[in-house]
Please model this.
Amino acid sequence: MASQTVSKAIIPAAGLGTRFLPATKASPKEMLPLVDKPLIQYAVEEAVAAGIRDIIVITGRGKRAIEDHFDLSFELEEVLKESGKDTLLKEIRRISELANFCYIRQRHARGLGDAILCAQHLIGDEPFAVLLGDEVIDAAVPATRQLIDLYEELGTPILGVQEVAPEEVSHYGIITPKPVRSGLFRVTDLIEKPAPKEAPSRLAVIGRYILPPSIFSILEKTPPGKNQEIQLTDALRRLAQAAPMHACVVNGTRHDAGDKLGFLKATVAFGLKNPELGDRFARYLKGLTF
Model:
């Protein structure tokens, strides 16, 4: 069983967002609006709903809008107050009070492993969560909470996974699973973006992790791979070889909003769920002809 609780989360947000150019030339991909909230806010709210209060955002050049979004906005609040827009005022204040935020700049684009390593001095010797902000998971129990519950039971690193189609395995890190019980696997190995014939399973890591502080010493010794990036998957392989690691099939609907088509699908799904827009949006979609 875990000896420490998970109270901190890392959200890497230093990527260049090249798949959304030119929209992301001057605006962070993480700030693209999914209906009425930026992508990164979904990850933050998931972490907070899972019981996490300290959130470390790894940023890069041109990401100041992320900090501004979660900061106080005195001028905007005053305008909303004077206009009598109390509901909006309450929501704006709620955003700035969601969590304790800390921002670290990743000076060089050296991959996800390097981004996590940037937060080592703030994590210390505690276990921590990692949430990739472009993976939006709509779940009754927050995806990160599902992983934390298993971590508290097992005391091992926990990876969030879901099954993907055979033709999609080459887009993900894929685990070699050893079944433990329904929805839970021992991870014996991982492979990054394998060809379909080489994939050991169809269980893909979906951007949710509970990791021990020992991952940092492994990351420090992990040599750069493709594009001179330090791959988290390489470090996880070594971690799994040294100690038990588990993977949990996350219950919920996952949207890969880091992809244009995935982003459009997520927009439709969340638009239909929106209490103010859902009915009208559904009528609009039903009336479309092709």
In short: The chain is about 35% helix and 25% strand. The first strand starts at residue 8 and ends at 12. The radius of gyration is 19 Å.
